[in-house]
Amino acid sequence: MLKVIAVSAPEYPYGRLNSKSLTSRDPVSLYNAGRYAAFLADSRIGCWGDSNWAASRKNRKQNFLLMNSLAEDLSYYEELLAREGPNLLLIGAMTVCLPGAIECARVAREMFGEEILIVLGGRHVNETMFLTKDRSEVKHHNGSPLLLMLKGKIGKLFDLVIAGEGEFIIAKLGEIVDRVSSKQPLTESVFRNINEDESELRRVPGMWTLGSVKSGKIKTIISDGIPIDKDKLPSPVSMFGVSSGFAVFENALTGHAFSDIGPGCIYDCGFCSERNSVCGPLQQLETSSNRLYRQLADIKRVIAEDAPGFKASAFVEDSIMLAGLTSQLSKLAEMLRSHPLDLKFGGQLTVDLAIKQKKLLEELRPLGLEYLFIGLETLDPRAVGGMNKDVNKRNWIKRAQTVIEEMAKLDFSIGLSVLFGLGENQKHRLSLIRQISRWQEVFGNPKVVSFNWAVQHPLQGNDNGCGYDYIGWGINSSEYLEALKDYGEASIIYSLANIKAPALSELAEINVAKKTIEARP
Question: Would you say residue 149 has pLDDT above 70?
Fold first, then answer.
């Protein structure tokens, strides 16, 4: 019997995630990666239909775990391993979570030896194991888990590493695990099966790369690149349900919705891990509004089925909602007018796109869109080397105020994602917090403010020569963990190139200042 668990690796060695952080409580990326396999299980198709995922949404999601810190969540992880006795372990990891992924793999290997296949994926792998533009060669960043295992910097803990689109290749790996011979160690049988059927494996849909370390060498398999039809993928919420709510939507449960236009952004800001030069071009844009409407409708339906009596809400997880495209935002408005959902929802836009699309946002407001989340990294983009999304190039902070003022008039709730650590000085940081406080006094917005401290991501080698291997925890002291506990992402070890980590005294000053904006209703 195929038994699978999926774990989002922890970011911190110890310490509980603070309630003020806007970090999701659900392993949303894992839900996306596992949704096709979950569909097979839900539909009772093949070995997945006989697996431990062939259960209700509520029971299926019990095989997923989002870990925030190793020390706090290790017991839950060990209990999950012991309860399910998995033969396939899927680990997802952002860059700052690589040390946590290593520990998760080590624990599973100690418990099950070679009778469990341990597979690592996620954004860190996507940024450290990548293809040349002609897709002919695999390149490795210093932080590539395969390279780290080959060099002996970490143990040979990950049997397989997947970069790219994982939905179909994950389902295929489950089939391989299920059918291999029980007369040999499971991992050995899987590798033999992969080697024998490599040409068949390449035809599994999706743009993906599969890698392993065997006999002192890195071996990689590049898919044939057969496109995945995004229109036919099941929504994550239909497979895993909804279990939490965003405070901005008050008493409603909040599902995560996607238009599935791709993992990246339309812009290419140098510091961002979602920049399009790393994540790739957007896909199937012409039907993206249809997919988003369907996922919003699924959220409404699933909440009604699983939690009758609760109101429904959703947050659109696109880097920029429907890429900010007029055509797709208009189509979404048309569908919501024709077939209302009675669902509150929000999404992310940039300052300039919110200004550009004011008329469409006004149309969408009575149709359910009531929350806009906007990134505000600095008072002046020129002070930190510029940002690709700064389209107008003039008076950034004035344009940000225009958005807050105009959207407040339309009765939107505004959330701001504030990013420090780009090269600004302490004076600028405190000035930005004071500016946000003034906006709250005058306009009643922003309602939500999320803080992050910039982390240098591998970015497929576009990391300004930093070359970090990322095997150490990004925050490795109790004092800094306490000072940064409210931040969505942060590191004092993996700062941007030529940027010093903040002093504890600076963080203390910032944390005192930001209490003034967090305390407002």
Answer: yes
